[in-house]
Amino acid sequence: xxxxxxxxxxxxxxxxxxxxxxxxxxxxxxxxxxxxxxxxxxxxxxxxxxxxxxxxxxxxxxxxxxxxxxxxxxxxxxxxxxxxxxxxxxxxxxxxxxxxxxxxxxxxxxxxxxxxxxxxxxxxxxxxxxxxxxxxxxxxxxxxxxxxx
Length: 149
Hints:
Elements: H1 26-35, E1 36-42, H2 44-47, E2 57-63, H3 67-70, E3 91-95, E4 113-119, H4 120-128, H5 137-146
Parallel strand pairs: 2-4
Antiparallel strand pairs: 1-2, 3-4
């Protein structure tokens, strides 16, 4: 198991380059990077159950998007190719496993980075719905106690 203590991601906040996934356009990446207010390790690394040399690294973040995306007046392309209709900016999602032959069908493995940066609006919506992915640990238990039943 990993001996590191999870916490804020140290170093560069640069995200992996865009991809053909609907939430992985270069524009979405730029919005996430510029507005990022939080980026932390989640998953097995946070829970201390990762196995050194065998696990990927899961990270989640939170960003404040520009007003035109909050109001719905602006949208981002559907991936880097822009096939299909544009999408609302809600998140930037990138898995380095996509870089290998097989692309989006690949599962993450040892050394891969899985990162998702949620807009503040989407994070709040998921957290208030009790989604355990966005409200890890103490935050989740505090929300649960405060939410009306």
